[in-house]
Amino acid sequence: MSNITIEKMIAHDLNLGNAAPLFFRQVINLVDSEVTSFFSKHIENALKTKQIRMCTFTYENASVLVDTIEISNDVTNDQLFVDNTINMTQSLFNNMSGAASNGALIFILYIDARTDHRYLAILKMDPNKAIRLDRTTFSFTVQRDILPSVNERLHKCAFIKVDNNLWNEEVHLRVLDKQQNTGEISKYFLLNFLEAKTCVDDKVMTELVDSTIIDFAVEEGFISTTAEKLDFVSRVDRLLFSGKVVDLERDLESLFETYVSGEEDLKQKIDRYKDKLLEKRENLHFIFTAEKNPTVAVYADEGNDIKIQFPIRYNNNKVKVDYEDEDDGTKTTVIRIVGVELKEKFKH
């Protein structure tokens, strides 16, 4: 079941190369469940795509921000929704003069069950084989039950929180531009049309992943014994090594593939973990630079008289710990430190 409930939707034809866009003067009838399902799935998938960027509006009077806040103050007013989406479409048309990429601009008012908040999705859709906009009736028809991939052409999206106090929030909107090979957002869409800028909180993302991924691994049955947990923690510590650029989708594949069988199962686990993160925090970015002190593994006797500690990322590679049974029933701990010559240090 989708987390996205669509409340209302409208589409305007950008009509580039002509004098003005073609505007539709009424909201789209949402009786076609296939269409609403298509867009609900697309929104859910887009919010979990690694190219998604957290952004803030640059100015308090940015036109898209002002139009969205007006909608938030009267969400049941269809005429206001129509008028303000026309304003935004005209603005994008003005900023795209000379651009070759035509298509429709779609506005969707929806509620996300994970946060229980309302959002405005702005989707710039080029003509594609998955869904067709009838330019005479401004209604949609799903041609094939597929969702656009990174290479498909439903590629520019903004997801704005519908809140009359939005300017005071730490993050105002999430933006995705699948057309840009660099993963960055095109200037005309982010800077000129949305009047926004990206913002990244690497420390928050690092802490969120670090604090949730072990419990997720236990819930999914990846790990159960102490030795398995220790090995998994050491893998996570290498993934979140301070200064490392984390591409969460790529790095989760590498981390999870040992514990699952098959690509489909792997994708489901990664999507499930992303959903867990979205339940914890609505503002996520899936590419970030890790900021984390190394987790320290400590081996000690019961009285804490003998102790050895080291960054856990060295466990089972640079530092190898084994146990041997003695004839008298006791155990001996054998520690091998590979490629390192230890020096004596005395502490008084």
TrEMBL record:
This is Nucleoid-associated protein. Pfam families: NA37. It comes from Paenibacillus anseongense. It comes from the Bacteria. InterPro entries: Nucleoid_associated_NdpA.
